[in-house]
Design a protein that fits this description.
The structure holds 2 protein chains of 2 kinds.
Chain A lengths: L1 H26 L14 H18 L2 H9 L6 H14 L4 H14 L4 H8 L57 E9 L3 E7 L10 E6 L2 E6 L10 E5 L5 E6 L6 E5 L2 E3 L5 E11 L3
Parallel strand pairs in A: 2-9
Antiparallel strand pairs in A: 1-9, 2-5, 3-4, 3-6, 6-7, 8-9
Helix pairs in contact in A: 2-3, 2-5, 4-5, 5-6
Chain B lengths: L1 H28 L14 H17 L3 H8 L5 H11 L6 H23 L4
Chain lengths: 281, 120
Protein backbone atom coordinates (compact mmCIF):
# COMPACT_ATOMS: atom_id res chain seq x y z
CA UNK A 1 0.00 0.00 0.00
CA UNK A 2 2.70 2.43 1.05
CA UNK A 3 4.85 1.45 -1.96
CA UNK A 4 1.92 2.03 -4.27
CA UNK A 5 1.36 5.49 -2.83
CA UNK A 6 5.06 6.32 -3.17
CA UNK A 7 5.05 5.29 -6.80
CA UNK A 8 1.87 7.31 -7.36
CA UNK A 9 3.52 10.34 -5.78
CA UNK A 10 6.54 10.02 -8.06
CA UNK A 11 4.28 9.54 -11.07
CA UNK A 12 2.70 12.88 -10.25
CA UNK A 13 5.94 14.61 -9.26
CA UNK A 14 7.76 14.21 -12.56
CA UNK A 15 5.16 15.80 -14.86
CA UNK A 16 4.60 18.38 -12.14
CA UNK A 17 8.27 19.36 -12.25
CA UNK A 18 8.23 19.57 -16.03
CA UNK A 19 5.04 21.62 -15.95
CA UNK A 20 6.51 23.95 -13.32
CA UNK A 21 9.62 24.55 -15.38
CA UNK A 22 7.50 25.18 -18.45
CA UNK A 23 5.45 27.72 -16.55
CA UNK A 24 8.58 29.49 -15.26
CA UNK A 25 10.40 29.53 -18.58
CA UNK A 26 7.68 29.89 -21.19
CA UNK A 27 4.42 31.07 -19.67
CA UNK A 28 5.57 33.48 -16.97
CA UNK A 29 9.19 34.31 -17.75
CA UNK A 30 10.71 37.21 -15.84
CA UNK A 31 10.34 40.44 -17.78
CA UNK A 32 13.43 41.48 -19.76
CA UNK A 33 15.33 44.36 -18.24
CA UNK A 34 17.62 42.65 -15.85
CA UNK A 35 20.33 41.65 -18.29
CA UNK A 36 24.03 42.21 -17.86
CA UNK A 37 26.41 43.48 -20.56
CA UNK A 38 27.46 39.87 -21.13
CA UNK A 39 24.05 39.24 -22.69
CA UNK A 40 24.27 42.12 -25.15
CA UNK A 41 24.25 41.30 -28.84
CA UNK A 42 27.73 41.29 -30.37
CA UNK A 43 27.49 44.74 -32.03
CA UNK A 44 26.38 46.25 -28.72
CA UNK A 45 29.18 44.45 -26.90
CA UNK A 46 31.60 46.11 -29.30
CA UNK A 47 29.94 49.46 -28.68
CA UNK A 48 30.30 48.80 -24.94
CA UNK A 49 34.03 48.17 -25.39
CA UNK A 50 34.48 51.34 -27.44
CA UNK A 51 32.56 53.40 -24.89
CA UNK A 52 34.54 51.93 -21.99
CA UNK A 53 37.81 52.76 -23.74
CA UNK A 54 36.66 56.29 -24.58
CA UNK A 55 35.41 56.86 -21.06
CA UNK A 56 38.67 55.63 -19.60
CA UNK A 57 40.57 58.13 -21.72
CA UNK A 58 38.72 60.83 -19.76
CA UNK A 59 38.48 59.24 -16.31
CA UNK A 60 41.84 57.41 -16.30
CA UNK A 61 40.65 54.89 -13.77
CA UNK A 62 41.98 51.39 -14.54
CA UNK A 63 39.75 49.74 -11.93
CA UNK A 64 36.62 51.21 -13.47
CA UNK A 65 37.75 50.24 -16.95
CA UNK A 66 38.34 46.69 -15.82
CA UNK A 67 34.99 46.48 -14.02
CA UNK A 68 33.12 47.75 -17.07
CA UNK A 69 34.84 45.41 -19.48
CA UNK A 70 34.81 42.37 -17.23
CA UNK A 71 31.04 42.72 -17.10
CA UNK A 72 31.08 41.41 -20.66
CA UNK A 73 32.39 38.09 -19.29
CA UNK A 74 34.52 37.49 -22.35
CA UNK A 75 37.04 34.72 -21.83
CA UNK A 76 39.68 36.45 -23.95
CA UNK A 77 38.94 40.05 -23.04
CA UNK A 78 42.39 41.66 -23.66
CA UNK A 79 42.66 39.97 -27.05
CA UNK A 80 39.14 41.00 -28.00
CA UNK A 81 39.83 44.63 -27.16
CA UNK A 82 43.13 44.50 -29.06
CA UNK A 83 41.38 42.89 -32.03
CA UNK A 84 38.82 45.68 -32.00
CA UNK A 85 41.62 48.26 -32.03
CA UNK A 86 43.23 46.53 -35.00
CA UNK A 87 39.90 46.30 -36.77
CA UNK A 88 39.35 49.99 -36.19
CA UNK A 89 42.71 50.68 -37.70
CA UNK A 90 41.95 48.67 -40.80
CA UNK A 91 38.46 50.10 -41.19
CA UNK A 92 39.69 53.68 -40.82
CA UNK A 93 37.90 54.48 -37.60
CA UNK A 94 38.96 57.82 -36.13
CA UNK A 95 42.50 57.59 -34.82
CA UNK A 96 41.43 58.72 -31.36
CA UNK A 97 39.04 55.79 -31.02
CA UNK A 98 41.67 53.32 -32.22
CA UNK A 99 44.24 54.69 -29.81
CA UNK A 100 41.85 54.63 -26.87
CA UNK A 101 41.04 51.02 -27.66
CA UNK A 102 44.72 50.14 -27.96
CA UNK A 103 45.45 51.82 -24.64
CA UNK A 104 42.60 49.95 -22.98
CA UNK A 105 43.83 46.65 -24.42
CA UNK A 106 47.30 47.37 -23.13
CA UNK A 107 45.93 48.16 -19.68
CA UNK A 108 44.19 44.81 -19.68
CA UNK A 109 47.44 43.09 -20.49
CA UNK A 110 47.23 42.59 -24.25
CA UNK A 111 50.54 42.73 -26.07
CA UNK A 112 50.99 42.81 -29.83
CA UNK A 113 53.17 44.65 -32.33
CA UNK A 114 50.10 46.32 -33.76
CA UNK A 115 49.25 47.86 -30.39
CA UNK A 116 52.76 49.22 -30.02
CA UNK A 117 52.59 50.75 -33.46
CA UNK A 118 49.10 52.20 -32.92
CA UNK A 119 50.14 53.80 -29.66
CA UNK A 120 53.31 55.18 -31.17
CA UNK A 121 51.44 56.81 -34.04
CA UNK A 122 50.60 60.43 -33.38
CA UNK A 123 46.93 61.24 -33.64
CA UNK A 124 46.39 63.50 -36.64
CA UNK A 125 44.66 66.70 -35.82
CA UNK A 126 42.94 66.79 -39.15
CA UNK A 127 40.32 64.52 -40.62
CA UNK A 128 41.99 61.54 -42.29
CA UNK A 129 41.79 61.42 -46.04
CA UNK A 130 38.91 59.69 -47.67
CA UNK A 131 39.58 55.98 -47.87
CA UNK A 132 38.58 55.94 -51.51
CA UNK A 133 41.82 57.75 -52.19
CA UNK A 134 40.35 59.67 -55.02
CA UNK A 135 42.52 62.71 -55.10
CA UNK A 136 40.50 65.79 -54.52
CA UNK A 137 41.35 68.63 -56.86
CA UNK A 138 43.44 71.01 -54.85
CA UNK A 139 44.26 74.48 -55.91
CA UNK A 140 47.70 74.14 -57.40
CA UNK A 141 49.99 77.04 -56.84
CA UNK A 142 49.60 79.30 -59.83
CA UNK A 143 52.33 81.54 -60.95
CA UNK A 144 51.25 85.03 -60.15
CA UNK A 145 52.63 87.73 -62.37
CA UNK A 146 55.73 89.03 -60.76
CA UNK A 147 55.89 92.79 -60.74
CA UNK A 148 59.04 93.55 -62.57
CA UNK A 149 60.92 96.49 -61.33
CA UNK A 150 60.54 99.18 -63.85
CA UNK A 151 63.69 101.01 -64.77
CA UNK A 152 63.57 103.97 -62.54
CA UNK A 153 66.20 106.61 -62.50
CA UNK A 154 68.60 105.77 -59.75
CA UNK A 155 69.57 108.80 -57.79
CA UNK A 156 73.14 109.52 -58.36
CA UNK A 157 73.83 110.19 -54.74
CA UNK A 158 73.17 106.57 -53.89
CA UNK A 159 76.51 104.90 -53.58
CA UNK A 160 75.49 101.60 -55.05
CA UNK A 161 72.10 100.29 -55.87
CA UNK A 162 71.08 97.81 -53.23
CA UNK A 163 70.24 94.47 -54.71
CA UNK A 164 66.56 94.55 -55.34
CA UNK A 165 64.72 91.67 -53.87
CA UNK A 166 62.52 90.58 -56.71
CA UNK A 167 59.31 89.03 -55.48
CA UNK A 168 59.18 85.47 -56.72
CA UNK A 169 56.24 83.14 -56.75
CA UNK A 170 57.04 80.72 -53.96
CA UNK A 171 54.96 77.61 -53.75
CA UNK A 172 52.76 77.69 -50.70
CA UNK A 173 52.65 73.91 -50.49
CA UNK A 174 55.50 72.28 -48.63
CA UNK A 175 57.64 69.85 -50.52
CA UNK A 176 56.02 66.44 -50.58
CA UNK A 177 57.59 63.06 -50.00
CA UNK A 178 59.91 61.62 -52.60
CA UNK A 179 58.68 58.49 -54.30
CA UNK A 180 60.83 56.03 -56.12
CA UNK A 181 59.29 52.97 -57.72
CA UNK A 182 60.81 49.95 -59.42
CA UNK A 183 58.94 47.22 -61.30
CA UNK A 184 59.71 43.57 -60.68
CA UNK A 185 58.53 40.73 -62.86
CA UNK A 186 57.13 37.93 -60.75
CA UNK A 187 54.58 35.16 -60.86
CA UNK A 188 52.48 36.55 -58.06
CA UNK A 189 52.76 40.33 -58.11
CA UNK A 190 53.25 42.13 -54.84
CA UNK A 191 53.24 45.83 -54.07
CA UNK A 192 56.03 46.38 -51.58
CA UNK A 193 56.16 49.72 -49.89
CA UNK A 194 58.97 50.99 -47.76
CA UNK A 195 58.69 54.27 -45.93
CA UNK A 196 61.73 56.23 -44.83
CA UNK A 197 61.99 59.31 -42.71
CA UNK A 198 63.80 62.37 -44.09
CA UNK A 199 67.10 61.01 -42.72
CA UNK A 200 66.73 57.79 -44.66
CA UNK A 201 65.79 55.64 -41.68
CA UNK A 202 62.85 53.27 -42.07
CA UNK A 203 59.79 54.51 -40.22
CA UNK A 204 57.22 52.30 -38.57
CA UNK A 205 53.64 53.15 -37.82
CA UNK A 206 52.95 55.04 -41.04
CA UNK A 207 49.46 54.51 -42.36
CA UNK A 208 49.25 53.80 -46.06
CA UNK A 209 46.06 53.74 -48.06
CA UNK A 210 46.06 51.43 -51.04
CA UNK A 211 43.16 51.59 -53.42
CA UNK A 212 42.87 48.79 -55.94
CA UNK A 213 40.37 46.48 -57.61
CA UNK A 214 39.41 44.96 -54.25
CA UNK A 215 38.67 48.34 -52.73
CA UNK A 216 40.71 50.38 -50.32
CA UNK A 217 42.96 48.78 -47.75
CA UNK A 218 44.85 50.38 -44.95
CA UNK A 219 48.36 49.20 -44.26
CA UNK A 220 50.61 50.08 -41.42
CA UNK A 221 54.34 49.92 -41.81
CA UNK A 222 56.40 47.83 -39.45
CA UNK A 223 53.97 45.00 -38.82
CA UNK A 224 55.86 42.34 -40.78
CA UNK A 225 58.56 40.92 -38.56
CA UNK A 226 61.94 40.73 -40.17
CA UNK A 227 60.99 42.91 -43.12
CA UNK A 228 62.05 46.20 -41.62
CA UNK A 229 60.33 48.97 -39.71
CA UNK A 230 59.15 50.83 -42.77
CA UNK A 231 57.86 47.88 -44.74
CA UNK A 232 54.32 47.02 -45.77
CA UNK A 233 52.97 45.08 -48.71
CA UNK A 234 49.80 44.15 -50.47
CA UNK A 235 49.07 41.39 -52.97
CA UNK A 236 48.29 42.76 -56.41
CA UNK A 237 45.78 41.34 -58.82
CA UNK A 238 46.94 40.84 -62.41
CA UNK A 239 45.95 43.83 -64.56
CA UNK A 240 44.99 45.65 -61.38
CA UNK A 241 45.81 49.31 -60.99
CA UNK A 242 46.72 50.51 -57.52
CA UNK A 243 46.90 53.96 -56.10
CA UNK A 244 48.62 54.55 -52.84
CA UNK A 245 48.70 57.44 -50.50
CA UNK A 246 50.41 58.13 -47.26
CA UNK A 247 48.65 59.72 -44.40
CA UNK A 248 49.99 63.01 -43.27
CA UNK A 249 50.21 66.51 -44.53
CA UNK A 250 51.17 66.57 -48.19
CA UNK A 251 50.01 63.03 -48.76
CA UNK A 252 51.65 61.42 -51.76
CA UNK A 253 49.76 59.58 -54.41
CA UNK A 254 51.29 57.30 -56.93
CA UNK A 255 49.78 54.75 -59.23
CA UNK A 256 51.17 51.38 -60.27
CA UNK A 257 49.67 48.53 -62.25
CA UNK A 258 50.35 44.82 -62.51
CA UNK A 259 51.07 44.49 -66.24
CA UNK A 260 52.08 41.33 -68.11
CA UNK A 261 55.83 40.83 -68.30
CA UNK A 262 58.32 38.14 -69.26
CA UNK A 263 59.87 36.10 -66.50
CA UNK A 264 63.50 35.10 -67.20
CA UNK A 265 62.66 31.43 -66.90
CA UNK A 266 59.19 30.09 -67.32
CA UNK A 267 55.85 31.49 -68.34
CA UNK A 268 54.82 35.10 -68.37
CA UNK A 269 54.50 36.97 -65.15
CA UNK A 270 53.17 40.24 -63.83
CA UNK A 271 54.85 43.36 -62.67
CA UNK A 272 55.03 43.71 -58.95
CA UNK A 273 56.40 46.94 -57.58
CA UNK A 274 58.80 48.20 -55.00
CA UNK A 275 57.86 51.69 -53.91
CA UNK A 276 60.15 53.65 -51.64
CA UNK A 277 58.76 56.74 -50.04
CA UNK A 278 60.98 59.22 -48.30
CA UNK A 279 58.90 61.50 -46.10
CA UNK A 280 59.44 65.22 -46.30
CA UNK A 281 60.92 67.08 -43.41
CA UNK B 1 -12.11 2.08 -4.12
CA UNK B 2 -10.46 3.69 -1.14
CA UNK B 3 -7.08 2.53 -2.39
CA UNK B 4 -7.73 4.05 -5.80
CA UNK B 5 -8.63 7.34 -4.19
CA UNK B 6 -5.44 7.29 -2.19
CA UNK B 7 -3.37 6.62 -5.31
CA UNK B 8 -5.07 9.42 -7.23
CA UNK B 9 -4.56 11.71 -4.26
CA UNK B 10 -0.85 10.92 -4.18
CA UNK B 11 -0.54 11.55 -7.92
CA UNK B 12 -2.27 14.90 -7.47
CA UNK B 13 -0.06 15.77 -4.52
CA UNK B 14 3.03 14.86 -6.57
CA UNK B 15 1.82 17.02 -9.43
CA UNK B 16 1.27 20.00 -7.17
CA UNK B 17 4.56 19.69 -5.34
CA UNK B 18 6.38 19.02 -8.62
CA UNK B 19 4.82 22.03 -10.31
CA UNK B 20 5.71 24.27 -7.39
CA UNK B 21 9.25 22.98 -7.20
CA UNK B 22 9.65 23.20 -10.97
CA UNK B 23 8.41 26.78 -11.02
CA UNK B 24 10.78 27.81 -8.24
CA UNK B 25 13.68 26.03 -9.90
CA UNK B 26 12.87 27.64 -13.25
CA UNK B 27 12.52 31.08 -11.75
CA UNK B 28 15.38 31.21 -9.24
CA UNK B 29 17.83 28.36 -9.74
CA UNK B 30 17.90 28.10 -13.52
CA UNK B 31 16.21 31.33 -14.60
CA UNK B 32 15.59 32.27 -18.19
CA UNK B 33 18.61 34.03 -19.59
CA UNK B 34 18.05 36.54 -22.33
CA UNK B 35 20.78 36.68 -24.92
CA UNK B 36 21.54 39.13 -27.74
CA UNK B 37 19.76 41.88 -25.89
CA UNK B 38 19.83 45.57 -26.70
CA UNK B 39 21.02 48.21 -24.20
CA UNK B 40 17.41 49.01 -23.25
CA UNK B 41 17.13 45.51 -21.77
CA UNK B 42 20.09 45.92 -19.47
CA UNK B 43 19.64 46.05 -15.73
CA UNK B 44 19.04 49.67 -14.65
CA UNK B 45 22.46 49.78 -12.97
CA UNK B 46 24.12 48.81 -16.22
CA UNK B 47 21.96 51.23 -18.17
CA UNK B 48 23.24 53.97 -15.87
CA UNK B 49 26.79 52.82 -16.56
CA UNK B 50 26.10 52.91 -20.29
CA UNK B 51 24.76 56.47 -20.11
CA UNK B 52 27.76 57.55 -18.07
CA UNK B 53 30.13 56.09 -20.69
CA UNK B 54 28.25 57.81 -23.51
CA UNK B 55 28.62 61.14 -21.72
CA UNK B 56 32.32 60.55 -21.13
CA UNK B 57 32.80 59.54 -24.75
CA UNK B 58 31.11 62.80 -25.70
CA UNK B 59 33.58 64.65 -23.49
CA UNK B 60 36.36 62.92 -25.42
CA UNK B 61 34.89 63.65 -28.84
CA UNK B 62 32.03 66.15 -28.87
CA UNK B 63 29.97 64.55 -31.61
CA UNK B 64 26.44 65.40 -30.54
CA UNK B 65 24.68 63.36 -33.22
CA UNK B 66 26.61 60.26 -32.20
CA UNK B 67 25.92 60.78 -28.50
CA UNK B 68 22.26 61.37 -29.23
CA UNK B 69 22.02 58.18 -31.30
CA UNK B 70 23.71 56.18 -28.55
CA UNK B 71 21.39 57.53 -25.86
CA UNK B 72 18.37 56.97 -28.06
CA UNK B 73 18.94 53.24 -27.61
CA UNK B 74 17.56 53.74 -24.10
CA UNK B 75 14.82 56.22 -24.88
CA UNK B 76 14.57 59.97 -25.12
CA UNK B 77 18.18 61.20 -24.74
CA UNK B 78 17.36 64.20 -22.55
CA UNK B 79 15.12 62.20 -20.22
CA UNK B 80 17.68 59.41 -20.01
CA UNK B 81 20.40 61.86 -19.05
CA UNK B 82 18.25 63.70 -16.56
CA UNK B 83 17.42 60.47 -14.78
CA UNK B 84 21.01 59.32 -14.55
CA UNK B 85 21.94 60.78 -11.14
CA UNK B 86 18.91 59.02 -9.61
CA UNK B 87 19.65 55.72 -11.28
CA UNK B 88 23.40 55.62 -10.86
CA UNK B 89 24.36 52.99 -8.30
CA UNK B 90 27.84 54.38 -7.73
CA UNK B 91 28.73 58.01 -7.07
CA UNK B 92 29.60 59.87 -10.23
CA UNK B 93 33.18 60.94 -10.73
CA UNK B 94 33.77 64.67 -11.24
CA UNK B 95 34.65 63.98 -14.87
CA UNK B 96 31.42 62.07 -15.40
CA UNK B 97 29.38 64.77 -13.67
CA UNK B 98 30.93 67.46 -15.90
CA UNK B 99 30.49 65.33 -19.01
CA UNK B 100 26.83 64.68 -18.25
CA UNK B 101 26.18 68.36 -17.63
CA UNK B 102 27.90 69.30 -20.89
CA UNK B 103 26.02 66.72 -22.90
CA UNK B 104 22.70 67.64 -21.35
CA UNK B 105 23.34 71.29 -22.08
CA UNK B 106 24.29 70.51 -25.69
CA UNK B 107 21.23 68.33 -26.20
CA UNK B 108 18.90 70.95 -24.75
CA UNK B 109 20.44 73.73 -26.85
CA UNK B 110 20.23 71.60 -29.94
CA UNK B 111 16.60 70.63 -29.39
CA UNK B 112 15.70 74.23 -28.54
CA UNK B 113 17.27 75.52 -31.73
CA UNK B 114 15.57 72.76 -33.72
CA UNK B 115 12.15 73.62 -32.33
CA UNK B 116 12.58 77.36 -32.87
CA UNK B 117 14.58 77.39 -36.07
CA UNK B 118 12.54 74.99 -38.15
CA UNK B 119 10.94 75.94 -41.42
CA UNK B 120 7.58 77.70 -41.07
Amino acid sequence: MRAQQGIAFLVGLLPGLIGGLYLAWEVFPPPPGGSSPAELAIPYQELWIVLAARADAVERDPATLRRRLEALALPDLPERVAALAERGLLENWPSGVVQDLARAAQQLGARSPALVVILATPVPTRVPPSPTLIPTPTASPTATPTPRPSPTPVPTWEPSPAPLETPTATPTRSEGPLVEQRPLCEGSPLLRIRVFDPDGKERSGVRIWVSGPRGTETLLTGLKPGMGDGYADVQMEPQGTYRLGIEGPGSVLTEVAAQPCELPHGPGGWTGWEVDVRLAR
Amino acid sequence: MRRLKAVIGMIGLGLLIGAGAGFLLGRYVWPVRYIDVVPAELHPDWQAEYVRMVALAYARDPDLALARARLALLGDPIVVLQQLPDRSPAPLSPEARAAIADLLHALRSSSASESSGGPP
